[in-house]
Amino acid sequence: MADVHRMEQASRKPKSTVHGAWERFVRGEDDIRGVRPEVALSWQRCRDQYRVDPYLSEAPVAITDVDHTLEHDVVFAELGFRAASVVDEVSNAGGVVTVTDATGRVLAEWGDKATRDYAAKANLAPWFCWAEGATGTNGMGTALESHSPVVIRGAEHWCQAFHDWNCAGVAVRDVVTKEPVAVLNISCWRSELPVSAGAWLSNAASRTQFMLRRRARDAGAELIAAYNHARSRAGVSLAAVDPAGRVVIADDAASVLLGVPGSTPAPDPAVRWNPGLPELARAARYAAKQAAHNPSWVGSTQIFTHLADEPTPVSIRPVFLSGHLAGNLLSFGVSEGEQLPRADGGAGSGQDRGPASRIVATRENRMVLLRQPEVCFAESEGNDVWLSTDQGRLRAASPALDKLEKELGDTGFLRVHRQYVVNLGRIREVERGFKGELALVMDDDANTMVPVSRRNAPAVRRALGI
């Protein structure tokens, strides 16, 4: 809650300062003086990635063909209950409360009648879309892009027609995949948000996340039970992974391939093992999509594992708990079921995401949009990610190296160490240590030497053909 209070204080910039920056940014300049970093990044997405018209006056109609799981419906109902409990307080402050799904589609709205009438003119109402890609920077859409509560005030909205609004939103995210499920938001027209808005939103989201964590632990226990049952009658190496590809339990042989502790159950999603294998994560995501439409689906693929120079066949079988996908059982050395599409041309390859065309960094009061060849490597340092670039050392807009790795994973960048992601095209030399360890000499001005961890060495060798 203290973070929410600091966020609200930081958002109180002079209106003329923010509006002036908005005018410059809309004209194509990158001067962001007086604008909070999270808002500047949202503007960059709206202008350069989503190409939202800053003079849009109303939200578009939401698409209707949207799949929701039963678990998502439970989240919507819970958030509706939370909203109903404070609707009188919000109404008295002249505000409205909205709940949206993961696409930014407004599902329900409560609150002050006069404010709802103003909201209707902008299509701030059920069945309209407020995702950033549709309606620009706003409390609901920007919350979907953020892992923290957001406050968007006045001219911080990307679309000029919404500059009379103040909004605060928070996303509820799946505790396993980290993907957004829903957003809870408060909006006020030409008036300040209620003093308790931030605390209430955080509390409502936390209570809903607690429900999801409990459900995820139950799913983890179901995965372990399915693993134990399969192990008693299978003669192959086995592992159980959640829908994000994190390991819940693996036998001794599978643990070596995955680089995780053997026979150590981790039902709690907060302590599951990340094997650091992008191909496995992609396969898990693809399997989740297939199993959602066909519970009896079984698939197979080949993945490069740790300490192996050749890909290993893997069979993937979904495990369900009360109709909800708990995860998958992996059988190593087995090829059964549908063959997953190749990583370079089909589903599961990350092509639905699309490669990032620019890498965003910041320098003092300016946003720097870098072409990928300009970035030599990224380094994690404390809570920040720094980029070694042709324009010097810049702070990355991405808040975590894991997120940057995901964004750049299909564009010639590779994770080589827990602290480093490198541009493969910027490697000048490879040095071998006395015990076979690797280090990469980069072609930046300093010829920086980047270490390669033992678990990432096989992937580096494959990528460089050495």
TrEMBL record:
It holds the Pfam family LytTR. PANTHER family: STAGE 0 SPORULATION PROTEIN A HOMOLOG, TRANSCRIPTIONAL REGULATOR-RELATED. The keyword DNA-binding applies. It comes from Saccharopolyspora halophila. This is DNA-binding protein. GO terms for molecular function: DNA binding. PROSITE patterns: HTH_LYTTR. Keywords: DNA-binding. Residues 359-466 form the HTH LytTR-type domain. The lineage of its organism: Bacteria, Bacillati, Actinomycetota, Actinomycetes, Pseudonocardiales.
